[in-house]
Design brief:
alpha/beta; 11% strand
Amino acid sequence: MLKSLLAASVLVAVTGCATASQSSSNEQETQYQASEKAIDLAHEYLLIDTHIDVPYRIRDKWDDVSVATEDGDFDYPRAVEGGLDAPFMSIYIPASYEESGGSIQLAHELIDGMEALVARAPDKFAMAYSTEDIRENKEKGLMSIALGMENGTPIEGELDNLHMFYERGIRYITLAHSLSNHISDSSYDIRRKWNGLSPFGKKLVKEMNKVGVMVDVSHISDEAFYQAVEISDVPVIASHSSLRKYTPGFERNMSDDMLKALAENEGVIQINFGSSFLAKQANRYRDMMKKRINAVKEQFGEDSEEAKRRIAEIEANNPYPYATLETVLDHIDHVKELIGVEHIGIGSDYDGVGDSLPVGLKDVSDYPNLVQGLLDRGYSEKEIQMILGENLMRVWKSVEDYAEAH
């Protein structure tokens, strides 16, 4: 998840640019029209998205997502339209809480918010704490609310806290976020405090296996990733990552060698939909625009009329380069060709990447477009079923079974 660290900064740094390009992308949206078959498959098969940022979104600005909302990428009516059965709601803890404290309190508040959502709309939602809950809720016509913790800071160096958050419903933990913490180095942090996982982080991975919490390797450094897959006795997940092949130098994504290690571990990569995760041009856009705008400010003065005029021209002539549905399919194709379709899932990062979502996948109503794209590229219905949710369920069940045996 980029959060304000990346996605929102695009909007802040180049105000006005996203609005213009959004309108152009909306015009392109008509290119994507899912067939009845694609819509039917999206609703028939179990559809799990392992990373949706509703909890932090509605903490910042409360919205009742049990009904249609004007803002955001998720609400119940759109999710039903898209066929979504089980969103993993992200219990996101900003990296700053590692130093400031208060992370446990924030985590409890965000979990409370999801439990309150279910309590307000028990005819629509149900909490899901196991693979069995997911399947039973689908049979009942209820949307499962599962929980993943993004950033392990609330563990605060105590394994007892892992057990506590398991009891509260957390079923995966992203070990770090945008800065290194007491568990792991971060892919975004140039400092390598631990050269991978900390000594406590290594103990935590083992304990997560025993408790039944999936190890999420998104956001962590390459060294931490390799250590995690070596230490873990069960498959791991990358809850919302894409491929470095298409974003060279972007450590937050996974390299081909990492994908091969993930396959040996029998894990899954849940493809992120944010354009900066999908395409080189979008990935480098923010830094490119910042350099050009700063150069103008230095030359003409930050508040001068000439600087404002030139910056407006730069923004108008360089709209945000949204990825498209085809870009997402390219990532999926590459994973399939390299390590097999059994290692692919969906981790959209809806409500977490700001206005950077690809054309054709703008919100949770658009999953049928993805299904249509997979059909068009020759994926079988069985393969589509695996990508939509069964691959993730395989990993989760493996984690449950290991924990039960230990």
